[in-house]
Amino acid sequence: MHVLVLNAGSATLKFQVVRTDRARIADNTDEKLARGQMERIGGESVITLRGPDGALTRRTAPLRDMHAAVEWLVSWVTSAESGTGLTSRAELHAVGHRVVHGGERFSESVRVTPDVTRAIEDMIELAPLHNPHNLAGIHAAQRALGEGVPQVAVFDTAFHQTLAEHVYLYAIPYPLYRRHRVRRYGFHGTSHRSVAYRWRQLSGKAKADVRVITLHLGNGCSACAIVGGESVDTSMGFTPLEGLVMGTRSGDIDAAVLDYIAGKEGLSLPQVEALLNSQSGLLGVSGLTNDMRDLLAEAREHDDRRAKLAIDMFCYRARKYIGAYLAAMGGADAILFAGGIGENAPEIRARICDGLQWVGLTIDHAANDALQDGREGRCSTANSTLEAWVVPTDEELLIARDTCRAVDGT
Ligand code: ADP
Question: What predicted TM-score, i.e. pTM, was given to this entire model?
């Protein structure tokens, strides 16, 4: 089966074309035929494309909206130039969509029906920056490929629907949960699931026996405690603002600070919330950048005090969550690093794990330094009883597989 995977944002569209089926899922032999992204949709769009050989092509095209973008994409994917070998739209058998918010209704990936579309619309007030664009991607794919081609929604929140009530509730008046659905939902679920699944394959451990802590450290960062393949706690909450220090988000903060900052700085509450989302985290503390690569360079080359402080805060918060989840789960088998920082920054991994020797985790620095650029493997010493691994996330592959399963009905 050829699955088109779409991740539609406000002016961006990321995509992959994956050849998969039940046998390939079992053998881990799915094939990626093409991938890329389209940016600045709504104007002169910049398109980055990679065919099966990984060779990069850059294009520009005037794409006025998501419909035009998906139409362009489907034409390219089925052209000889793409190298995918697909020659007609009929060879795209299904479409898998990343959808950010599935609320309490969706605990797994589902075929898109009019009822599902309405439910995703209902969730717009919980994810105003994401769900409308995800829906636009669904409508555009339906129009480009026809109503007969199955579409599947894969939700970022679904994996965390296994959280227990005492974990997902905030300790605020209960009617606020009943009336307004205020609770912790968690995000990055597809990534945490993908990483935990891949590690089980690598370690050969049975699903039921496994306790892991996954750390997705990218621009957005979150931690997840996973027992027997189910999420039991995660650091993001009602929105992706809660939890770890991130590129531009503060993570955990005393809610009373919002009104205080608003009063002192003459800002509205939405403005303060925007400040916590887009001007805080690594960027806010360092005053320099949200890019961990540049912060590490500033700290190393110029001994920049605030770059070092931002890195210290980032690593300390992550270690604190590891401690909390070890307590919540009564121990763990492994800590799994993923995301741009988790996969490429050995120094950050080492610093997060530094001081965890007492729970049996010691970093093997040579192994750790060698794990970059998409390589997977163990970065703890052979005799560590709590292991640490780098397991690159592959959300698109998981979306393609979920789509295949939902369409097959297996
Ligand atoms: P997103 O969450 O947007 O998908 P990524 O997972 O690509 O983002 O992660 C982006 C982050 O990864 C940035 O902070 C970037 O600096 C960091 N990163 C990428 N490569 C490296 C590297 N070699 N060393 C340190 N940080 C890196």
Answer: 0.94
